[in-house]
Design brief:
It is a single chain. By secondary structure, the protein is of the alpha+beta class. It has two domains: about 150 residues, no CATH class; about 280 residues, no CATH class. About 35% of the residues lie in helices and about 20% in strands. A seven-stranded mixed β-sheet has the order 7-8-9-10-11-12-13.
């Protein structure tokens, strides 16, 4: 099947079939395309010069993709000006071409041909007619991917903005069974009336570890209770993650406010109670928490970045660290202080640490979790605008925590979004390598 005139041999592989189709599970997402476009310098044709946007507030995805950008022509030192949509099409076309080449190499190897043919030997090549259509068809793909978000604010594309929180509320708290609330495990606040009446009251309201020999607490089921606080029903559950091996190092607490009248969820918080063996390095923490979950490994990496190797050892050796894994308030109640009130109630009712370690509250001040996969590709002004909500919340929490009377000995913030998700953009893998190498 040689073709001496072109020096190529045709492959049966279809180039166009490698383009993402409607409803395709492969191919780039809208965030991939927009981030790639924004990594190029914006061009102002009227001024005939680079002109980055001064702000992205109120700017839609379509506006950004309709802008013109400087597109470098490989390593030639030359460039051309293209619209964002055209650059996105090129991005898709290039990915399809790269995939075609990889498949062609595999096909060549299966046929027993050399991996890298010499200059005198024919090369595999796509069908010329398909190659001619590639960029136009890739443009259609880009349009199809971007159309659903074209009218959305650009900033919303790089924020999770309560998406995870909505699922958290819906799946965890829409209906919490009343039979999870044993009458014998009432919180201290619920027993206040008996104390006022002079009745004898135990020092602790419940035995979270089942150490007192009581028969109505099953360690395989969560501790749970419910009481009315103001206009809300407060419900809380707590359990060890590994009760079968008597491992008290990781516990999970859920607390939620329901509207008392309708039982509609108003706010919810999930806390992870982390207690580790003595640490001598941040590598110890990485090793320990990696055995629990990806979320806990991310916490280890984020805490290492926030506290440094020595500070991390000091904090985790002396405290039981309580990490706010999820913290969500429904829209009608946002800005009313309901979230911090719920956190206050939950922290006050946590089981006392059996070893007497004080609590350290660990907070990721990222209500609009930034998609770190693309963060460094974005223009500097957009990165600053994406950081603004976290800065506001960090300042608010710092002020609130300094004035609050929570049962915590200290608090610290971690850049959790940067490390959330194992191997996100390779950041976690690189950080783990650095930790292990520096502390080997």
């Amino acid at each position: 099947m040689s073709n001496a005139g072109t020096g190529n041999i045709k492959s049966n592989l279809s180039l166009l079939k490698l383009l993402p189709g409607a409803g395709s599970e492969f191919g780039p997402a809208a965030t991939d395309l927009v981030a790639h476009v924004l990594s190029h310098a914006r061009f102002d044709a009227n001024a005939d010069t680079h002109a980055p946007r001064e702000t992205f507030r109120g700017v839609s995805v379509d506006e950004v993709m309709s802008d013109e950008y400087v597109f470098p022509l490989g390593r030639t030192g030359q460039s051309i000006v293209l619209t964002g949509y055209r650059i996105a099409a090129g991005f898709i076309a290039e990915r399809a071409a790269d995939e075609w080449l990889e498949l062609a190499r595999k096909e060549r190897a299966a046929r027993g041909l050399p991996h890298d043919p010499s200059g005198d030997e024919p090369h595999l090549a796509p069908d010329p007619a398909e190659a001619d259509q590639l960029l136009d068809r890739a443009g259609d793909c880009a349009q199809r991917i971007l159309d659903p978000v074209a009218g959305e604010p650009l900033i919303s594309l790089f924020e999770t903005h309560y998406r995870g929180g909505r699922e958290f509320l819906r799946l965890s708290w829409e209906g919490l069974p009343e039979d999870l609330v044993p009458a014998s495990r009432r919180p201290l606040a619920a027993l206040a009336s008996s104390a006022e009446n002079g009745e004898r009251r135990e020092k602790r309201d419940y035995d979270p570890y089942g150490l007192e020999g009581t028969g109505d607490y099953d360690v395989d089921r969560p501790l749970a209770y419910r009481e009315k606080i103001g206009p809300f029903l407060f419900t809380m559950t707590y359990r060890h993650e590994y009760p079968q091996v008597d491992d008290e190092r990781l516990g999970t607490a859920f607390a939620v406010f329901h509207e008392a009248g309708s039982d509609i969820v108003a706010a919810a918080v999930e806390l992870k109670l982390v207690k580790v063996p003595p640490l001598t390095s941040s590598a110890d923490l990485v090793y320990t928490l990696d055995t629990y979950s990806g979320d806990m490994l991310s916490l280890a990496l984020a805490a290492t970045e926030a506290l440094g190797p020595q500070g991390l050892c000091d904090v985790f050796n002396a405290h039981r660290v309580i990490y706010i894994s999820m913290w969500e308030v429904r829209k009608p109640w946002r800005g009313e202080g309901l979230g911090v009130a719920l956190l206050h109630q939950a922290l006050e009712r946590l089981p006392v640490d059996v070893d007497g370690r004080p609590n350290a509250l660990c907070v990721a001040p990222e209500p609009y979790q930034t998609e770190m996969k693309h963060f460094e590709m974005l223009p500097a002004v957009l990165r600053e605008e994406l950081k603004a909500p976290a800065r506001r919340l960090s300042a608010h929490l710092t002020n609130w925590l300094e004035r609050s009377k929570l049962p915590i000995a200290m608090h610290f913030f971690v850049p959790m979004a940067k490390h959330a998700g194992i191997g996100s953009a390779g950041e976690n893998a690189r950080l783990i390598d650095r930790i292990m190498e520096s502390e080997a």
